[in-house]
Amino acid sequence: MFIIWMLFLDENSYLTHREFNEEIKELETWIDYHKQKIAIDKETIEKLKDSLELERYAREKYLMKKENEDLYIIEFDTIKK
Fold this sequence. Notes:
The protein is mainly α. It is built from 3 helices and no strands. The radius of gyration is 27 Å and the shape is elongated.
């Protein structure tokens, strides 16, 4: 009776520990994902310290342009005919 109580019914049961272990694995995966994102962002910030890279980034991401310069946006049709 004691073993059944400790394995299934107690608040520190095996089932509860298994759920906590699964949650820990999910959180560790979440942490690893965000660490990778932080590393990518740090690399991007380091590149943007160069003025030419900053200009390229602004042109690509925000479609900025210099004065007296024409900007053409080419969109490809993704619908198959």
